Amino acid sequence: MESVVGNGCFRLVREMANIQGRDVFVADLYVTPTWLDPGNTDPLLHFPKDADQKDALIIPLWIPGHFLLSVMRPLQKEIFFLDSLYFRRADGFSSQAYRELLRGLAQQIVAGAWTEKTALDLKDVPKQTHGNDCGVFMIMYAWYFAMDACFDFGVDDMCLLRRWWCIVLLENFGLEGYGRKFAHFTDEGKATLRDNVPPVFRITRKRKLESPMVSEDLIQYPSLQPV
Q1: Residues 151, 124: contact at Cβ < 8 Å?
Q2: Which element (helix H / strand E) includes 169?
Q3: Residue 92 domain boundaries
Q4: Number of domains, the chain
């Protein structure tokens, strides 16, 4: 999965959570890899000043060949390390470097003892038993945590979920932004239903050649030469 697509999905996750009254922050997929070597940038600079008051801080992560996710709940001092391949590891998470870094970040956001959990500590977390769908798992984990919902998808749903996300992305990020006028959960879509916006028309425009008129008297014709 390309990170532009992932960021688009995460933007919609945040918007859908906000509609449900949940204040969620989502980190940028292009930023989080810079926290590790060789970048070693300060993760705290990427977060809002009120990060400690958010319902959830969703942090998508990438290591070569695999997507991961961390979710912080600052108000409860809980941090989750989520990995679709959790069942293959004794500690349930594929990056010790990110684990240590995010522990330090949690202390910067809210000092004190945090409760750490992986998918091994949770009930019925979907797992990636086959395929290359770790990016889709990451997004779906984030969405369910953002909505504080119980998991009800599995690896056999990946094809349908990919298609669904493609449709949702096209509805919301289509050419010229028309898709957002018809997505039921956006402000533009709600305004369209209330008939508060003009209808969308696609009219073919004729191109006009804007050139000054040239007087025929000014045109110099070549003289005729006998053959």
Answers
A1: yes
A2: helix 158-173
A3: 3-151
A4: 1
